[in-house]
Every structure is written in structure tokens, then in C-alpha cells.
Amino acid sequence: MGDFINSFALLEGDGSVTLIDCGVKRAPATIVKGLAHLGKSPADVQRIILTHAHSDHAGGAARMVDETGLAGVEVHTDDAEYIRSGSASPRDTTTRLGAIFSRLPGGGFPATPVVREITDGELINVGGGLRIHHTPGHSPGHISLIHEPTATLITGDAIWNMNARMTWPVAAFCTSYRQNQQTAQVLGDLEYAVAAFTHGPEIRGNAREQVRDFLQRATKKQ
After folding, report:
1. Domain presence at residue 60
2. Could you read off the pLDDT of 81-93 as tens digits, one per residue?
3. What CA–CA distances, in Å, run from 171 to 99, 157, 203?
């Protein structure tokens, strides 16, 4: 799938793996191939964290839970019930397309057990420290993450970088497009050297400055 929809694998010193997001329903086969490229298998995955309850990020989660033998996934408290039930978080009905999509069937994904609910500001013991930043709006429990030892930001869907061009996510896909724009501002205040996007390629040079520039320009247009 190229960098159209990205999942991430964080490798521990003991050889174990933490997965962040599981793509669409058919993505696990690609994820397993990616693990093999790293010399890993599903049995090495000790933790799965989801950035939010949308089918392009949680669609493959149930299958990956089965593949890895884990009891379930970790997700922010405000998205946990959506993951357990396999239902996408609500659409922003203040937008025309959001209102239309909210009335259409579909958008769900296989129900997936949740073993732990994540909270804002939490430092998870993954690869030396994975900091959780609650950035709601795209979904109620949407999170962005910073892997502190490598100074790497994972934006989730707070910001897209499709075709190497930063944009807001599609408004109709958000629970609250306005809230997404507001809470994403925190990403300009954090410290990191690399920005990794769940949609689009990563930025390795002057990442924080480029994200801040986007946020400032996008805010002026509102």
C-alpha cells in the first residue's frame, strides 16, 4: 500500500515488537510480511496500540490479535467502546458529507478486545518511552505519540501528509473537524526530530519546524 496507510513497528532490545495501528481488514498479511523483513514474526509482537477507531487503522486489529496470540489491543479510553464493538467513531454532522456518511451503513470493522485503556500524558514502557498525547477531534479518543528516545512523532490522523503535502484530514471523516484543528496545535509545541504520519511519508529533516509552519499557515486560513 506504499505510504497511503501506515502502521509502525517498534523493536525492543529483547527482540519483542510493539505495533501501532493495524491498517484495513486485509492489511495483516502485509504487516506480517513487513515483520518478516525485520526478521520478526507475529509471535514477537507483545503489544498492539491503536491511534483511533477507524476502519483503516483498526480494521486489521482483530486478525492481528489472533495472529499474535495477544488478548487484545490498547487504545485511548474515549475510543475503547468503539473498538470493542467494531463501530467507527461518529462523523462530524456539521459538514455536508459527514451528515451523509453518518446515515449510510458500513464503516465498521471486526470487534476487537481491548486489554488496556490509554490516558493522556501516559509514558508507556515501549522502546525506552512512548508518550501519549490525546488529540481528539478526528475521533473522541484519537492519540498522537512521541517515541522519546528517538525523538519521533507519530501524528496519527491529526495531520495527513499525502503526496508529501501536509493537510488536515478530510472533515467528513472526523468526529469534530474543528476540534481536530484545535488539538493538533499541541504537535507544534512538542519536541521531536522526525514526524511519521499514518497517511503519507515521514519527514526527517526539520520535522518540527515543518509541522509548526503548517499549523501556523492552516490556522491563518480558518
Report:
1. yes
2. 999 999 989 888 8
3. 11, 11, 23
